[in-house]
């Protein structure tokens, strides 16, 4: 998909994927969370897994989002992030709950 993703489409797809992969929550961060995404912006997603969430599900979610929207997608699992890093603090500051 060319251009900036409509938030409603992104929200619907993330809700579907949260249900499919039994995750707890999905957040966006980065340019989509700040509201300054452009046509060439990638999609940054943070997943909070659950007890049924498999490590490989992160890759499946990234692939499904890429196929759905044709954008570069970076997906991270909250539980796997190093809490002592500037990246973690930035993600936690910017994140917006979507699903």
**Biggest pleated-sheet summary:** 4 strands, mixed
CATH homologous superfamily label: Beta Polymerase, domain 2
Mean pLDDT: 95
Fraction in helix: 40-55%
The poorly predicted ranges are none
The CATH top-level class label? Alpha Beta
CATH topology: Beta Polymerase, domain 2
Which second-level CATH architecture applies? 2-Layer Sandwich
What percentage of amino acids are in beta strands?
15-25%
Cα gyration radius (Å): 13 Å
- The domain tally reads 1
Please write the string of helix (H) and strand (E) elements.
HEHEHEHE
Cα distance spanning the termini? 21 Å
Give structural notes.
The chain has 99 residues and is of the alpha+beta class. The protein has one domain (7-97): Beta Polymerase, domain 2 (2-Layer Sandwich), CATH 3.30.460. It is 41% helix and 18% strand. The protein contains four helices and four strands. Strands 3-2-1-4 form a four-stranded mixed sheet, sandwiched between helices. Helix 1 runs antiparallel to helix 3 (57-69). It starts with 6 loop residues before the first helix and ends with a strand. The mean pLDDT is 95.
């Amino acid at each position: 998909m060319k251009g900036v993703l409509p938030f409603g489409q992104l929200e619907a797809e993330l809700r579907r994927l949260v249900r499919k992969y039994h995750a707890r929550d999905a957040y966006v961060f980065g340019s989509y969370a700040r509201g300054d995404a452009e046509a060439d912006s990638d999609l940054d997603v943070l997943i909070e897994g659950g007890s049924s969430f498999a490590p490989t599900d992160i890759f499946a979610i990234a692939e499904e989002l890429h196929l759905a929207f044709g954008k570069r997608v970076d997906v991270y699992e909250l539980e796997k992030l190093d809490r002592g890093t500037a990246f973690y603090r930035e993600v936690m500051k910017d994140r917006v709950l979507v699903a």
